[in-house]
């Protein structure tokens, strides 16, 4: 039986219930984070919790815990569930209040839940790459907020599922923005490129780590939107996310990226990323 964290209390999973008038349930009015756990340790927890705090400020949800209090609670949850390799999911909603679009009064407190899930590293995808399709980005223009409102992302991912692909790459007018739940990168020669961090993408924590790794290792990097043509013509394409790490993309819309092989720059970044995980969480079993 697993333990979940609900409003600061550790309770059995079966006892965690959502009120029908919770604003997360009715409006998707809330924010969330997903943190990777390796060897029972959170990877880049501070960065995730800082982004959570930034998202909460952008939508006016007051989180009453400090980052260190949240870290302690999450570490306790991981240890109660004896989680070694997996993820930690957490969300804050605006709380329970009679349905009305406007914000409730200040006495309504956010609903906070967190739980853990066993999830192995996606070793096959990391080694062999994945296929993707391109879809129009139909989402709103505050994709920088890690909001519970994921309908556009859900619809994009479903198109990938129906096309037997791993991910959908979204484009807005002529520019590639991001995946349904990942950031997208192209490589030409030695140059690595991804969409700039603005309101049209989520500034992924994995994205931020890759940028840091490029800078530390003297790799050429550009944060600038690119077109679908650039995507199709790229030497290498990969995606990044907390759960997918640095995953090579070997085909776009059924057309192989170059020869359909994982590129050298992608492999180099995978290696650097694994080193960063090991430095923070210890040696990986696989
Ligand atoms: C829309 C979107 N973009 C990018 C990402 C990657 O972010 P991160 O690296 O923080 O997981 C995610 C992760 O879920 C996402 O949902």
From TrEMBL:
Cofactors named for this entry:
pyridoxal 5'-phosphate
- Check the record and name the InterPro entries matching this protein: Aminotrans_IV (IPR001544), Aminotransferase-like (IPR036038), BCAT-like_C (IPR043132), BCAT-like_N (IPR043131), Class-IV_PLP-Dep_Aminotrnsfr (IPR050571), D_amino_transT (IPR005784)
Identify the Gene3D superfamilies for this entry: 3.30.470.10, D-amino Acid Aminotransferase, subunit A, domain 2 (3.20.10.10)
Family as reported in the entry's similarity comment: Belongs to the class-IV pyridoxal-phosphate-dependent aminotransferase family.
A family per Pfam: Aminotran_4
Which SUPFAM superfamilies does the UniProt record give?
A: D-aminoacid aminotransferase-like PLP-dependent enzymes
Q: Which UniProt keywords apply?
A: Aminotransferase, Pyridoxal phosphate, Transferase
Source species: Niallia hominis
Keyword Signal assigned: no
Q: Which reaction does it catalyse?
A: D-alanine + 2-oxoglutarate = D-glutamate + pyruvate
**What is this protein's name?**
D-alanine aminotransferase
NCBIfam families xrefs: D_amino_aminoT, PRK06680.1
- Tell me the gene name: dat
Q: How does it assemble?
A: Homodimer.
Q: Name one GO molecular function term.
A: D-alanine-2-oxoglutarate aminotransferase activity
Q: What is its EC number?
A: 2.6.1.21
